[in-house]
């Protein structure tokens, strides 16, 4: 009788969250609309930027996302469901965007998937304009 080969060991895969592309990536919850629905979004503090002299280039891969660039005041309003202004838009599918910062201040980048279960990645870099 032929000897059976030992059964192959099954690999154990642990589900780990993807490592953020930028170390300053954070996650938060906000509210929106009259019903004050909550949603989760990712954000990055871009730091103090010079209006008219700097911008942010954003790369996006994956599912459509809502993508926003905020000054500090409008970022706080966004997080609490208040009226706010932003650079960016809803349902973004293009892979690359460049936004010129309009005025000096502390700036933030926020992103959320259009469909909550969708996967996406965002990368950014600060640009200097001459």
TrEMBL record:
UniProt source species: Vitreoscilla stercoraria
Annotated stretches, region: Disordered: 1-33
Biological classification of the source: Bacteria, Pseudomonadati, Pseudomonadota, Betaproteobacteria, Neisseriales
Protein known as: DUF1883 domain-containing protein
């Amino acid at each position: 009788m032929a000897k059976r080969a030992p059964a192959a060991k099954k690999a154990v895969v642990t589900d780990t969250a993807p490592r953020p592309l930028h170390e300053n990536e954070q996650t938060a919850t906000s509210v929106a609309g009259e019903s004050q629905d909550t949603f989760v979004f990712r954000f990055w503090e871009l730091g103090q930027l010079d209006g008219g002299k700097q911008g942010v280039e954003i790369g996006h891969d994956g599912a459509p996302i809502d993508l926003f660039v905020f000054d500090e005041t409008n970022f706080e309003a966004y997080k609490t469901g208040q009226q706010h202004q932003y650079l960016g838009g809803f349902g973004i599918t293009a892979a690359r965007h460049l936004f010129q910062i309009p005025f000096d201040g502390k700036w933030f980048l926020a992103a959320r998937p259009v469909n909550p279960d969708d996967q996406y990645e965002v990368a950014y870099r600060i640009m200097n304009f001459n």
